[in-house]
Amino acid sequence: MAKCLAAITVENGFRTDAGLSWTLEPAPADGTADAVLTAVIDKQQRAVDPALSKTHRLTTVSVMAKVPAALGSGQTQLDAMVSDIEEAMANKQHQYPRGITFPIYVSMEPLMPESAGAGWVGVAVTYQSNTPNK
After folding, report:
1. DSSP letter string over the chain?
2. Which residue numbers in the chain have pLDDT < 50?
3. β-strands 56-68, 120-132: how paired?
């Protein structure tokens, strides 16, 4: 996922530069960063597919992003970030190690600041994948 998401830059044809802020070590945004992009494991559970139930776990991952948004452009920036994440993740099965099923889009949840003039919007895009137990 890191390789896919770190590619999110305007130079690479995306709408935002969130990939420049990619991190594997999520921490609370301090308000000074222009953008934040990370992926965190939400949970693991028994694989739903009976053929994988003894060898894999169904792993749920949230891709979380925070991007700058001027007052009045929050929805536009939110849409751009969601589109960037979905595009970065699309058709990349070849980048995943053998035994890991390609992450499937599950849902999107906006993460809005408490005040409309905060200067940013956020999103959590949830994916699921079957990952080997070992």
Report:
1. -HHHHHT--GGGT-S--GGGGEESS-----S--S-EEEEEEEEEEE-SSTTTTTTEEEEEEEEEEEEE--TT-HHHHHHHHHHHHHHHHTT-GGGSPTTPPPPEEEEEEEE--SSTTSSEEEEEEEEEEEEE--
2. none
3. antiparallel
DSSP secondary structure string for all residues of 22-34:
EESS-----S--S
Instruction: Quote the pTM value.
Output: 0.86
Domain residue extents for the chain? 2-36+65-123
Q: Can you tell me which residue has the tokens 């995943």?
A: 96
Query: What is d(CA 66, CA 96) in angstroms, rounded to the nearest whole number?
Result: 25
